[in-house]
Fold this sequence. Notes:
This protein has 130 residues and is mainly beta. It is built from one helix and eight strands, in the order αββββββββ.
Amino acid sequence: MKKALLLTLSLLSALLFSACTKIDTAQIYGEWYWAWNEIPNLSVDGSVTYIFNQDNTLKIVTYDVFSNKDYTDDYTYKLDSEQKTLTFFNSDGSTYNHFKIESFNSSVIKLRYIVPTDMVEIITLKKQAD
């Protein structure tokens, strides 16, 4: 009986610890691409790359295959490792996008729009190979 109780308490404490674990914010720095192929029924002729910098600036580079051009938008971002949210801000400080972080590691980030869009609920970003 004591072993079962001890095992239960150990599992419970491990679950609580993992739920409260902060995100290593340094893992976000660098280039990430939007993994479109994980969204059913979505066809895209181009790409979107997110470039997160250590100074909390963000570049979103959209490539259009038809015009063969890149379009770059500049933002700032805030990664809240305790609340597990990621927010993008326009240059005037207004919120551009606000996400709940579903999962986060050094190679994949899954983000859920806090205010859902008509197109997608969750986006997956994958780390660009160095």
